[in-house]
Specification:
- By secondary structure, this protein is mainly alpha-helical.
- Helices cover 75% and strands 0% of the residues.
- Among the domains are: 106 residues, Tetratricopeptide repeat domain (Serine Threonine Protein Phosphatase 5, Tetratricopeptide repeat); 72 residues, Alpha Horseshoe (Serine Threonine Protein Phosphatase 5, Tetratricopeptide repeat); 52 residues, no CATH class.
- Helix 5 packs antiparallel against helix 6, helix 14 packs antiparallel against helix 15 and helix 16 crosses helix 18.
- 45% of the residues are buried.
């Protein structure tokens, strides 16, 4: 009898407080969406003090991101912890992230892993990715490639791009799972279609070599081009090679030079040497440009292309001393600004 009498009023009080909190929370959310952070701060603070998990999480975000208040990682962490303990998935993820990065506390991979896993088990794809990564690197627990594959797989199925890419890499290399080129292709494709430039580049290689998919040089160039447009130097160099050789596309030395230039400027050594060769032979231009050829072979040589030494020696036999000095100066200037 006593148990019933005590329980009923408490249950009513909780429900009553929740109804009031919900109304205030909606005020806070509306203010936040309107970027009225001062009002949002007041409303979220009141609800957080009542123990409303969503308010604690939102208030934590405001302290974490300095919205309507000065940035305070310690307060953010305290609020995320209160919300996380009530099962708020995003609060669990942010709390884990703070332990992971040492924000508001000393870095603690074990605590990070615990909270990432709590959120991951509730289906949060970003947390699943984090758990997969911590398993891969052995952070917060022993290294376990099999578990990394499992968690990446769960996140990948939800469309998490980086998980799709990492899962593809693991299938390609046999990390935590038998090597499977077709499965690697499947997940590289998923990540590539979601905009991963690295996945696009890897797809280009798979189509070029016929690994996990029927060989298709034209398709490889298309994927290399998408990666190249995102700034991947190796992809830019491969598109340049395609246009220079006429493999997968119509031969076009002007476009080859454009892509080799992009790759060379981004530090791709083979592209620097290819670009030098185009200038040396006058391909895609009205006449040869030995100064530019020398300059790029010099840059390639200084970046580790030993074969460029012989080409430079040959070029010196055809060039005036003033042209050599100009080329040397241009190479030195390029190197000094790209270190």
């Amino acid at each position: 009898m006593m148990k019933t009498i005590i329980t009923a009023p408490l249950l009513f009080a909780v429900l009553s407080a929740s109804t009031v909190a919900l109304a205030d929370l909606e005020k806070g959310l509306a203010a936040f969406e309107a970027q009225d952070y001062d009002t949002a701060m007041v409303e979220f603070t009141a609800d957080a003090e009542r123990g409303v998990a969503l308010a604690q999480y939102n208030l934590g975000l405001m302290y974490h991101s300095a919205l309507g208040t000065e940035q305070d990682f310690e307060k953010a962490m305290q609020l995320f912890a209160l919300s996380a303990q009530q099962g708020m998935v995003k609060a669990q993820y942010y709390l884990a992230s703070m332990y992971d990065n040492g924000q508001g506390t000393a870095q603690d991979y074990k605590e990070a892993y615990y909270w990432y896993e709590m959120a991951a088990e509730q289906g949060d794809a970003a947390a699943q990715y984090a758990v997969g990564t911590m398993n891969f690197y052995g952070q917060g627990k022993a290294e376990d490639y099999g578990q990394a594959v499992r968690w990446y797989g769960l996140a990948a199925e939800q469309g998490h791009r980086d998980s799709q890419y990492n899962l593809a890499v693991m299938h390609a290399n046999g990390f935590g799972t038998p090597p499977d080129a077709e499965e690697a292709h499947k997940w590289f494709l998923a990540a590539a279609e979601s905009g991963s430039a690295d996945a696009q580049y890897n797809l280009g290689i798979m189509f070029q070599d016929g690994v996990g998919v029927t060989q298709d040089v034209a398709a490889s160039v298309r994927w290399f081009t998408r990666a190249a447009e995102s700034g991947i130097p190796e992809a830019q160099a491969r598109v340049g090679i395609a246009f220079a050789s006429g493999q997968g596309v119509e031969r076009d030395y002007v476009k080859a030079r454009e892509w080799f230039t992009a790759a060379a400027q981004n530090g791709d050594v083979p592209a620097q040497a290819f670009l030098g060769r185009l200038y040396m032979n006058g391909l895609g231009m009205e006449e040869r440009d030995l100064v530019s050829a020398y300059m790029w072979f010099k840059v390639a040589n200084e970046n580790g292309d030993a074969e460029a030494t012989n080409v430079i020696a040959t070029l010196r036999g055809y060039m005036e001393a003033e042209d050599i000095r100009t080329a040397e100066s241009r190479a030195a200037n390029w190197t000094s600004t790209h270190r």
